[in-house]
Amino acid sequence: MIEDDDRIRLSLVLALEDEGYAARGAATAEEGLALQRSEPADTVLVDLMLPGIDGFECIRQLRRDDDVPIVVVSARDDTHDVVAALEAGADDYVVKPVAIKELSARLRALKRRARAVTADPVPTLTFGDLEISPEAGEVRKRGAAVAVTRTEFQLLCELAEHAGRVLSRQQLLQRVWQYDGGDERLVDVHVGRLRQKIEDDSGSPRHLVTVRGLGYKLQR
Amino acid sequence: MRRAGLRARVTAGFTAGALGLSAVMALVSYQITRQSLLAEREATAVRAAYYDAAIVREGVGAGARPENISAVLRTLDTGEDRRAVLRRGDVWYARQADTGATGAIPAELQQRAAQGRPVVQRVRADGVAALVVAVPLAPDTVYYEIDSLRELEQTLRVLTLVLTLVAAGTGAAGAGLGWYATRYVLRPLTRVADAAQEIAGGRSDARLDPAAEPDLARLSTSFNHMVDELSARLERDRRFAADVSHELRSPLQTLAAAASVLTRRADRLDERSATAAGLVADEVARFQSLVNDLLELARSDQPARRGPVDVAQLARRVCAEHGVPEDVVTPGSYVWRVDRRRIEQLLGNLLDNAAAYGGGATAVRLAFDGDRGRIEVDDEGPGVSAEDKPVIFDRFVRGRSSGARKDGAGTGLGLALVTRHAAAHGGTVQVLDRPGGGARFRVDLPECAP
């Protein structure tokens, strides 16, 4: 957990340990990034307001190294901050003060996603120049592997499973994030990130298309 | 009585002014024309009478016989409009036997003429205006000419009609001008009204262009200044509430986490400590919702982000989360264009309110009519008293029957937020009496058609 407020860090570490997690705190982004390199955690919680390297940059650097799930825990909930953090690569966003039960549910959902990737024995799905192998957890575009995060992959798999059909943002929130009535910006930003990776022109997508007023669908 | 509008009053003023002015002008021109026509006619008549009188004087000497007198009178070229009569002594002579004409000559005129003075007088004979010219020929002989003014009267009647029409036309033109002028003058004010309405509707960036109407530049500038001040103050208030809430969030996070650690170990604490830990946890939770509601309120003046939402499905989920049976919601699917987050919170707050004061919601009714979506949440509690109804949607107002509340939760902001969320959709909230007892909260949301 990267959090500069000592009391918040201490109390959250205590509470998360109560929930059965092994938790460690870092007071700065620099310290957190070093810790993640030396002893990688399964999930990273990041505050946005940090001294030195700020939360957004911290997320970008974490994301550069690997696809570790990142959850933002911030007192800021302006659309601007939420979208910027998600675009930097965060998988989920919770606003302080978050109840420990809720935070715990978020972490469980991320863990389930990590497992789900390797559990389903589904054959490779092909969408034109796109190949999705749920079992291998791989996406290939014209044969070349595309680096996607677990959340992005899960999102792609859900859409691939319902190929040609529209999934609403709420359905995707439910299936990928296990949110009942969550923030639809999560879906929109992740779809945007995914498009940049799998589409030739993310401005006019061919595969992952928006169905106005309804949601998204994946097509050839 | 309602006072007539500025426009109606200005138009009426213009009409009255134009009408009055044209009436005076008409009257004056009528009088002048009439006077000059009459004077001219009188002069002509007098000239003609004297001319005729000279002929008559020659024709009728002192001893002329009555037949000769009539014959002389007949030689006169008087046309149709003039009648010539002669009085000698007490006897009237006329060209024909139409001595009736003598009745038109007033006695007073006869007396004055008899005294040897020529007289001109206007009279009415047989309902027609006429001019009587009396020319004394001899001490006992007076020549009268009665000149009918029928033609002149006709001319004056036509003139009257024309002038009346002109006056009426001028009045109508005045009304038209007034109407047009006020529209022209009021148009910039219409823009002010439009801008004010936009601002009231939440678009705080509406301003007037002072250059558009140089004469109203001061009004535009003051208006803009006022709006600037107002939105700056609103923004300050909003920022303050948001800043305070934000600043409260961090310590609250510590409290929430620490309280959860404490409550998890409640069974290992002694009874007094466990009770205290429970109280802390409950109050932290309440504090948390208060801060969230305050933040929500601080930004609730932002416009609704509408999208298609199945409100029935949403209502069933919110009911489930609030421990209300899902079957209280109108069955079926109601897809409306609304702000999901706001409607979810609106429903949640109404359910919370019903739970706190009405023993729980007993019905969540959805209806769609034309373009308007309606949500009704019923409870079968004591209802809302008449004196509470006007203030129940204000901030931090809690029902007088607060005793009915069991858990002490509730921020006092729930219904205020319901109002704000409805208003963000351009909608309204009302509290009604449920038939059969209890309260009914009705939310109307316009422009919901998907």
How many individual domains of chain A? 2
- How are the strands of the biggest sheet of chain A laid out side by side? 4-5-6-7
Distance between the termini of chain B: 45 Å
Topology of chain A as a string of helices (H) and strands (E):
HHEHEHEHEEEEHHHEE
Number of strands of chain A: 9
Estimate the helix proportion of chain B, in percent. 40-55%
Q: Would you state the CATH class of the largest domain in chain B?
A: Alpha Beta
Shape of chain B: rod-shaped
- The named CATH superfamily of the largest domain in chain B: PAS domain
CATH architectural arrangement of the largest domain in chain B: 2-Layer Sandwich
Main sheet attributes: strand count, strand direction, barrel closure of chain A: 4 strands, antiparallel
Order of helices and strands of chain B: HHEEHEEEHHHEHEHEEHEE
Using only C-alpha atoms, the radius of gyration of chain B works out to 49 Å
Q: Find the CATH superfamily of the largest domain in chain A.
A: Response regulator
Given the structure, what is the number of helices of chain A?
A: 8
Low-confidence stretches of chain B: 402-406
Q: Structural class of the secondary elements of chain A? A: alpha/beta
